[in-house]
Amino acid sequence: MSRSVSISALLVAIAMIFGRLTGLLRVLGLATVLGVSYANDLAVLMISVPDFLNAMLIGGAMAAVLVPEIHRRNQESAGQSASQLIVQTMLAVALISGILALLLACVAPWFTRGLASGFSAAQISQASPLIMIVLWAFPLSTVTAVTGAVLQSQHKPLVPAYGNLFFNLILILAILFWVTPDQLSILAWAVVGAALFRLVTQLIPCFITGAFQGGFRNLLKFETLNRRLIVKYFQALTAIGLVIAFPVVSRSFASAFTGGISLFEYAQKLVELPRGLLGAILTMVIFPRLSHAFAEGKADVGSRMISQASGLILLISIPVTVVIYGCAEPMISLLFQRGQFSAYDATRTAELLQIAILSMPALIMSILTMDVFYARHETMIPFKFSLISLGCLVVLSLVLRNFMGISGVMLAFVLTSWFHFLMLTVGLHLKMQVSVIEGVNLKHCAALVLLTFSGIAISAMILRVITEPVMLVVYSGFVGLFCFGAVLLILRNHLPRFHRKLSL
Question: Domain spans of the chain?
């Protein structure tokens, strides 16, 4: 089982690397063509709207609730109940998301105002028709969330992992060949086409594997969608939707500054690259096996898997955080500074990236802790913690924006991310007696925190002394390697099984 998980994780990691790299190329293309401008702010909004709505209103909780339920029903029956659940869920989410898309299209100006509160009335008037176009991609994304969850439950996460790659490639072609500041409608229709293509690539393997076999019988009898399942779904949906709303809320606050959405998106994209990769592995590979272990009563297997995943997250995220902090400006200049993206824009983006990268360990660990709650069929606690965290984000953003500008908005996002993770960790330990890192006590956690901030402090001192980009990268790499060795030493000495081998 360990070898199977490791191989699956490796294959998904490769697929996600391609997906995230093409996502980065998409952002680089926008930076080259549109720079830091209102046009690019609008392009970022258009691309993010369908998946954001899907994750927040429909699909964000789909895997968290549907995967354990499919496992449970397969254990209790020959799979007929599971197939009916899958088909009826697809029908329900397609209908609901279609109605929601229509309603949002009817109030497009108000919806656009909520996404970008800093836009002027003229900008809202220009943006609303484009937002109406991309809303057609919303129902397609919600059905894709169902098919992705089905493939995960069958331990076939590779096809959903390639979904972002297909989506981004279509958008990159549109950006490079057709998109201009005056031709953003082409990008809007490209978003719809990319969402449709991504759905088709997942429907085909679902049919091949027989996931829908027998599911169309008694199609309109929705007894499989019982009240208990619906309640859990909406609790998980709200909890995950609130977390997904964190960057959206921050981006709305950032829209008050010229090019603020663009700057925020550029900085966040480099945080999303490692965070999205590890997060996707947790969701697509580890979570289905975790829910399966708990469904069979193998709590020890689940605890060992949680502990190993936590160790790997820390081993990767802490050194990466330190390295990116130290070489933020050379990295931004190398990746973005061309076309309409100036040296001044690179400096501003690097400053935001140095703040944003501090949230990465907390963001990845939060995904794992929420997965543990959902694998144990607990959805209310993450909902409460996410709601509290969102309130803190709004308050901190309002306060810090007045003192620090757009940097304050980013700092509020970082502080909220850590607050959310700490609440989840404490709640997991108190309510479910599950430790995120079994065998590592409070003093070891303090050592890891001290190590992270020491690495960042050393990087900050290096930035004051060295200005040559290549040397900055070299010295930041050395500091990152030191942090990697220190974290590995702590884990090998105190985390079970790390002293023998490093695996999932």
Answer: 1-14+226-504, 38-221
